[in-house]
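A quick aside before the break. I want you to see a complete sequence-to-structure record at least once, exactly as it would be stored in a machine-readable document. Don't worry about memorizing anything.
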Amino acid sequence: MQMQFPKDFLWGGATAANQYEGGWDEGGRGPSIDDVFTGGSVNTARRITIPPEADAFYPNHEATDFYHHWKEDIALFAEMGFKVYRMSISWSRIFPNGDDAQPNEEGLAFYDAVFDELAKYGIEPLVTLSHYENPLHLTTEYGGWKNRALIDHFVRYADTVLRRYRGKVRRWLTFNEINMLSVPFGSFIAGGMLPETCTAQDRWDAMHNQLVASARAVRLAHEIDPENQMGCMIAYMCVYPRTCSPEDQLTQLSVDRLHNLLAGDVHVRGAYPSYAERLLAEEGVTLKVSEQDAADLRAGTVDFYTFSYYDSRCVGTAQEGDPSTGNGALGGLRNPYLQATEWGWQIDPKGLRWVLNHLYDRYQIPLMVVENGLGAMDEVAPDGRIHDPYRIDYLRQHIESMREAITDGVDLIGYTPWGCIDLVSASTGEMRKRYGMIYVDKHDDGTGDLSRHRKDSFYWYQKVIATNGSDLND
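That is the input. The structure line, written in tokens, reads:
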């Protein structure tokens, strides 16, 4: 027996303003933390420069310029057949400094136009309020999310956009990959905190503040419009025990709980789980959860759960010669049974079925895969076409695993592959690490005419959507 995708399954794609929108100093927008993040590569780390340096390259300033190509891009999404488009609002386009008394009307009007254009094509927006982008002022003046003052600033921003776009947007996500604050990688991009001075205590304080802010925004959204559906977003960094030794099994349990499950447990269940105190103490962290915080968390549980899934890794006792994975966010050991991308991320479609079952057994609320994809160096052929059979194969295998999970009984409501159009890589700041089904002529040195071109995967995904996932052939 194999189930098919539900008739109302939400097929689409995903982007984020900081990596895609551009227009960094236009329309009244203020600088964000991404605007002081230089380009980099798999071998060269991105640098944070406050203020920006005159001779440095900042790829997020223009990104792939949705700000000036939004009508063209939405038409391409509609041509693919999107039912839903996951995007984010740039906080600093609405409140340039993050703590402004009044919002920027020009920024609000821009998203009005975007949502109206999506509605013209019958595409539902799924909007992330904060996707790795905080106004830079909240870093330089407040120190980022370790400062509880940001809770009120975020809630004011959320209140503004929830009221402005009432009826235009029904599904919202609060913080993108909030659990990235459990690892040093998330200090700046997720928490707006300078890595050189950020401690483990700072990161977990920041996550706690975001969880409280999220809960308050969820409750506010339900009050503003009972039709609003509010979701969380977790980076699910799938982990397996390296061996069958009991020690490795317990290591896997602890890593999965601390880095993958803890934030989701708070979002869905409304309280810190029983294991949190011990695991945080082992990290040298003690959280101060006030009575009001606890009440906010209880009252602000999410309606659905979304997550990103790219790869997996092993944890436990390293065997002789075991290399580490290429994905440095969580680290881990390479799985000898899996192949890897050019950036060392291990390709594990069957792991997605395991994660979906793991999460649905735990939470029993609707799930959505809102990021999944393959970063690769696509080449334009002499005839102008972009052949990406490797991407088609990656997506096909993951969609097959989603169908298996649905057959297992998982309530999976949608799928938005990451970077449906080429954009700047968050981890490396590269353009050559392309995820899109739409190629954008933009390169790591900033050159390119920003023209859009359909890859082979564009036509393949168009057919997948048209057949509701029943035809996955090339």
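Two observations worth writing down. The first helix runs from residue 17 to 20. Residues 10-239+255-277+284-313+326-466 form a domain with the TIM Barrel fold (CATH 3.20.20.80). We'll return to this after the break.
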